[in-house]
Each structure stands twice: as C-alpha cells, then as structure tokens.
Amino acid sequence: MESARELQxxxxxxxxxxxxxxxxxxxxxxxxxxxxxxxxxxxxWVSLFTLFSLSGQSAATLLGRLYxxxxxxxxxxxxxxxxxxxxxxxxxxxxxxxxxxxxxxTTSPIKPPPIFxxxxxxxxxxxxxxxxxxxxxxxxxxxxxSTYSLLCATQLAFNALFSSFLNSQxxxxxxxxxxxxxxxxxxxxxxxxxxxxxxxxxxxxxxIGFLCTLGASATYSLYLSLVQLSFEKIxxxxxxxxxxxxxxxxxxxxxxxxxxxxxASREWKGLSGEMEEYQKGKVSYLMTLIWTAxxxxxxSIGLLRLIFEVSSLFSNVVSTLAxxxxxxxxxxxxxxxxxxxxxxxxxxxxxxxxxxIYQHYLDDSKSKPAATSGNATSGSxxxxx
Length: 385
Description:
The protein has 385 residues and is mainly alpha-helical. It has helices spanning 2-11, 27-30, 35-69, 75-80, 90-95, 115-142, 145-151, 154-166, 173-191, 203-235, 240-264, 271-277, 282-309, 312-320, 325-334, 340-377, 379-384. It is globular, with a radius of gyration of 22 Å. The model is unreliable at 1-35, 101-106 and 376-385 (pLDDT under 50).
C-alpha cells in the first residue's frame, strides 16, 4: 500500500485529485498515458514549480535588500509585502474551481473537512507566518544579503527534524549528507561573522539579525511540515485549488496583522517621508514594494505545490538552491563582499543540493519498474490506495 502511495505521488499532474475514480467503467479513458508519459509529465511540473520557487525567492530577497539600501526602514512594511500580494491569486480561484461531488455508488467520495476546522487551520498558519515574516524582516535589515541568504540554509536541518517526527520522512546517506553540507555552509558564516565587518552594522544588531534569521528558518520549516501533514490528514485533497486556498486564506492573517502593527508602532506616519526620501524616487519606491509582494507569492505557490508533489523536505531543498544564486546576484547589484569563506559556503551548498537530487534520481529509477508492473496488472489499484 505504501509503495502504491509513493507511485501515485510521482504520476499525478497539476489538476488531478487524489480521490478514487468514481467511474470505474471509464477508467481506461480517464487515466493518463503509460508510465513513461506519466514520468515525464511529473518531472515537467516539478521543474515548473521549482522555477517558480527559485525565481520568486531570489527576486524577492534582492528587492527586499534594495528597499532597505535605498532608504526604506519600516520593518512592518517589509513584513507586510511578504503576504500582501495574495489578491493577485484570487482570479485563479475561478479558473481552478472545486470539482463537483461524486455520484458514485461503488466508492464513497472523500468528505471535505468542516468549514470551522479549515478556518482554525488557516488562522493558525496565518499567525505562524506573521511571526515568521517579521523575523525574516529583521534578519534582512541587519544582515548583508549574502550572509542572510546562506544563513537561511539552516532551515533544511530544521525541516529534516520536523519531517522525521511529523511526516515520517525516511533518510538515506545521501539525504543526510545533503543536510550536513548545507548546515555547515550556513555555519561558516556564523563562525566568521567578522567577514561582514565592512557593512557598518553594529555587533548587537548583527546578533539580532542572526538570531531572527535562525528563528525564522526554524518556524518556516515547521510550517512546511505542518502543511504537508494537513494535506494528508485534514484536507486530503491535493489539487492546485487546495494550494491556492492554503496560500490565499492564511495570508489574510499576516496582512491584517501587519496593518495593525503599522498603526500600533506609528510607523505609518513616516511612510510618506520615507517615500519622499527614497533615493530612486517615488515610482521606484512603489514598484519595489509591489514587485516584492508579487515575487513572494510566486515563490510561495511553487514551494506549496512541491510539498505534495514530493515532500516538505524536497520543497525546502529546492529553496536552498537559490542560496548560491542570491549572493552572486548581490555582488553584482549591491557590491557585497564575496570572499573565500563565502565561496566555500556556496560550493558546499551546491554540493549538498546535488547530493539530494542524486538520491531522488536513484529513487525515481527504482520506481520505474514498479510503475510498469503496476500499470500492467491493475491501474485501478493505484487509484484506490
């Protein structure tokens, strides 16, 4: 049963539901082509959402750094834009509408969870994201973008711990090697914090930024594992519509929380002056905030979809692929210092990522014979598991 479950995860596409096929007589017409076609289709979708995650995360991180470098100093505004872009996803709700309930008499459809349960779930994730986004804002404010990005690699180690307890993640030597290398990559920056002494950041603020980034990494890792657990145990419907719901509704909470924070801290009074003093002008100020909000949404959609296409740990591993990319872009855009220690850290990050990808390649190669055998004997058995 478990092997069939893994096989199903590797073969479904974006619009497919995990409910049983309500029309067994027409299963031959509704099923996708053979296992080879399913295999490549799955890789295409994984590659697409990986691209969403990487491009969105890299652009959002650089734009967040640009906001601070050009005169922005509102931590609540920087936190606000991390969740406030969700309205751009609302039109997609009408395109990816929920599927009508099944009228099957042979199999009972999976009942959706109660509305109250979903509201509590979205509220909990929203509160979790509020604290996480605020800590990330402090980290990005008090750390150079290259240090901040590489330090975020620790979230992979946190995610490995949470995945083991919450998602029954199985670890191999290659996966553990990946986690260790990426953790060492980030730890090099903590040990050699004096490498960034030319950034004129006070030691106390550097420590605050360092601790906030670590706390945000742990919180976000917990969030990813809990999202995967929610899909499996509560929602039990893994379609693109559920991804949109999981992104849009929880985003309402941190967005509203940041608005309250802006007024409670009285930072809203300084926003007009901040716009006036922004070095690149008012239009650039607005565009920086707008595109930061949009790119964070793109990244989040990619990460959420990868959670149940593969796992929360794989989603986190993909996000670490942006770590060696962002410092290189930061050198070009912000003239950050890229010395020997950061080069070594980037090499270790790339090595760790490739180690995980190779493990996934081995698992995928082993699954092909099982897919061929399972398809030849009974395609319906896979759907019923």
